[in-house]
Amino acid sequence: MADGVARWGRRTVLRRAALLGGGAALGVAATSQTAWIADRRLPLGGGPASATLGSRYQQVGGGGVEVAWGVHTGAPLVALTFDDGPQPQWTPMVLDTLAEHRVPATFFLVGERARRHAALVRDRLGGHEVGNHSWAHHDLARMDARTAYDDLSRSHEAIAAATGTAPRLLRPPWGHLGGAVLHAAARLNYLLVLWTLQMVEGEYPHDPAGHARRIVADVRPGTILLGHDVGPERRLVALRGLPDMITGLRARGYTFVTVSELLRRAAVLGAAR
């Protein structure tokens, strides 16, 4: 009897496992079918994944867009960039350090913050470069083409009014690209700029010198280096170590340039070969 119960238990377990396995397979199949439909039919034209807008003539500026993560060059050049500002607690600290060490940088500004804190950057960005980082740091890759364009246009105007310079570079929040972002960037004649190397503040809590040594060791010729002049307290590790970072890179023979200057010099060096 005990053996019969044991056999019955095994049969039950096996049967139920088979049923569960079949249900899981059906679930996977249904999910795959849903994904297939979504991939083929959604989002609709003009949505986040679409780099076209309707069937009419595409108003896309010069008709193309480039994306830069960095450049390949033998020249010891590095472009220092800062995202998300301006903010009163952080941006002046960065600008003061850069001024003291005579380092140019590229600031990707959030339009809403540039309008609200225009006094922080007005007359202080001589020798620096500005780029567009969206109106309110929302994910452009989730927006449809018209919304992404409207967002960037609004930010473009705010940055130009605050700094006196119209941005020609775009770095989308989190580096998220999508068809709508590409379409909007082309319409606005932007160059899309991502990065080669990013600050890693979370790995060096309370150790600005250690963080600076890490970044100095990781930079290669043609690097676009991403930092922030806004954010949580931990990011101050990078800003407090910025002087050491600058002197360390200069000791390795590096010259600091803006992103546009980096791209220009790389193009000149490439043409000379």
From TrEMBL:
InterPro entries associated with the record: Glyco_hydro/deAcase_b/a-brl, NODB_dom, Polysacc_deacetylase_ArnD, TAT_signal
Source organism superkingdom: Bacteria
Listed EC numbers: 3.-.-.-
Keyword Hydrolase: yes
GO molecular function, one term: hydrolase activity
Record has Hydrolase as a keyword: yes
Domain NodB homology: 76-257
Keywords: Hydrolase
Cross-referenced PANTHER family: 4-DEOXY-4-FORMAMIDO-L-ARABINOSE-PHOSPHOUNDECAPRENOL DEFORMYLASE ARND-RELATED (PTHR10587:SF137), GLYCOSYL TRANSFERASE-RELATED (PTHR10587)
Name recorded for this polypeptide: Polysaccharide deacetylase family protein
Species, as recorded: Micromonospora fulviviridis
